[in-house]
Design a protein that fits this description.
It comes from Niallia alba. The chain has 172 residues and is α+β, with helices and mostly antiparallel strands. The protein has six helices and eight strands; from the N terminus they run E-H-E-H-E-E-E-H-H-H-H-E-E-E. It has one domain.
């Protein structure tokens, strides 16, 4: 078991108390990102036996709730501290995930990026996306070694009994 954090709209607590569990909800996904989410769901199915469910996003370290960007300013939200078995969480690099979101090649070096642009690599763009799960490789690469690797995760279900703490906040 490992501890993770997930930021959610405050209404999630009501659903959690009513249903006893929390699942991902595709209604909140920007339509432009649906192909990326579909790809992540496929990866979850393959790697953590997900059964096609939408992801619930997790952080490996507690986010600074005073920072902007968690929600629209003024949104009432919660940060849930949860304990989940490692085999139910798929970890990835937050920055590299943006290659998937932006439909781009996930390069390891400037040289590799140049070769990809010239059509001289055998790896496809979609194959490169799987690198987001290779945290050590990214951390040691020239492209992603910025010293502040942010590790995110996805899971499909959070049970009420897995919640260790609920912290309420208003987004900045």
């Amino acid at each position: 078991m490992s501890v993770y954090f997930t930021n959610q709209a405050v209404e999630v607590v009501n659903n959690l108390n009513k249903n006893g569990f929390l699942t991902g909800n595709g209604e909140f996904v920007d339509k432009d990102f649906l192909p990326s989410y579909k790809w992540m769901i496929e990866q979850m199915d393959k790697r953590i036996n997900n059964n096609g469910l939408m992801p619930i996003w997790l952080w490996a370290t507690k986010p600074n709730l005073r920072e902007e960007g968690h929600f629209n300013k003024g949104t009432k939200a919660v940060c849930l501290t949860v304990e989940i078995p490692e085999n139910k969480v798929l970890l990835s690099d937050f920055d590299a995930w943006h290659c998937v979101l932006n439909d781009g090649f996930c390069m390891i070096s400037e040289e590799e990026d140049r070769l990809f642009e010239q059509g001289k690599l055998t790896i496809t763009k979609k194959q490169s996306w799987e690198r987001i799960f290779h945290l050590a490789k990214l951390r040691n690469s020239e492209m992603w070694n910025n010293g502040d690797q942010i590790v995110q995760g996805v899971t499909s279900v959070i049970q009420k009994e897995q919640i260790l703490n609920i912290e309420y906040f208003i987004a900045n």
